[in-house]
Amino acid sequence: MTVHLDARAERERTAREFRPGQPLPNFSYSGDEDALWSDVFATLRGMHERRSCTQYRLAAQRVGLPAGRVPQLSEVSFQLRNLTGFELAPVMGSLPGRLFYPPLAHGILRSTPALRPVSEQLFSPDPDVIHELVGHAVMLADPEFAQMYRWFGRATKRAESDEAMAAIARVFWYTMEVGAVIDDGRPRACGAAILSSVSEMESFVDAELRPFRIEDVVATDIDDSVCQPAIFAPIRSPR
Ligand SMILES: [Fe+2]
To answer: Is residue 237 part of a domain?
Structure first.
């Protein structure tokens, strides 16, 4: 894939210059990058039919992400604002927890416009626009999941120690990132990291299923560099 380095640098500069309250800027993507989005999106969409939770599939219909090009954060943010009051705000790469979580309390998901390289088409250890939109943004179109994201934000604003922040981060990871709910007696993905990765969606069905107990979740390390060998389920479905 040939991506003009200037285009990538331009996206980075635009995202870094964004300040809360400003209108969301547009980011440009090459034809190769649109093709990468189309490939990954088409593959994931087929997998979501069988392996994502009901809330996700309904929310995906409401958001209606385009199949043939990388969507703009601004257009998806506009949709979310109408659906659940959530907004996206650009940021480059991943943020430390103390900057990522608190805005969730105010209905803001800091989202990167970066796109994974083709070598990481099936699994990207870093967040990218596929992760943000196919994973998080669609779940944020579900009112009850959007409310849970807000609760995570509120919890971190009340956290008074690094230990408390770390515990919240683990609960977030094992629910909103790699979580599952039980639909029709089987685990179905509701976590953004699973929903936005072809490799994760493939290995999800063979992952070890552990009962969701909060004390186990906060005691379990996070390794986001590999497909998850174990998932916690069932978390109580909000519906
Ligand atoms: Fe994420």
So the answer is: no
Task: Answer yes or no: is 239 within a domain.
Answer: no
Residue 114 placed within a domain: yes
In terms of residue numbers, what domain contains 30? 5-232
Q: What is the DSSP letter of 52?
A: B
| Choice among 44-53, 164-173, 195-204, 229-238 with the minimum mean pLDDT | 229-238
The CATH number of the domain where 144 resides is what? 1.10.800.10
132 C-alpha to ligand 1 centroid (Å): 6
- State phi, psi for 48 to the nearest 5 degrees: -60, -30
Instruction: Say how many Å lie between the CA of residue 108 and the centre of ligand 1.
Output: 13
CA–centroid distance, 112 to ligand 1, in Å, is: 10
Domain count, the chain: 1
What is the Cα–Cα distance from 237 to 200, expressed in whole angstroms? 21
Task: Considering only CA atoms, give the Rg of the chain.
Answer: 17
Alpha carbon of 1 to ligand 1 centroid (Å): 25
**Global pTM value:** 0.93
Mean pLDDT, range 195-204, rounded to an integer? 95
**178 assigned to some structural domain:** yes
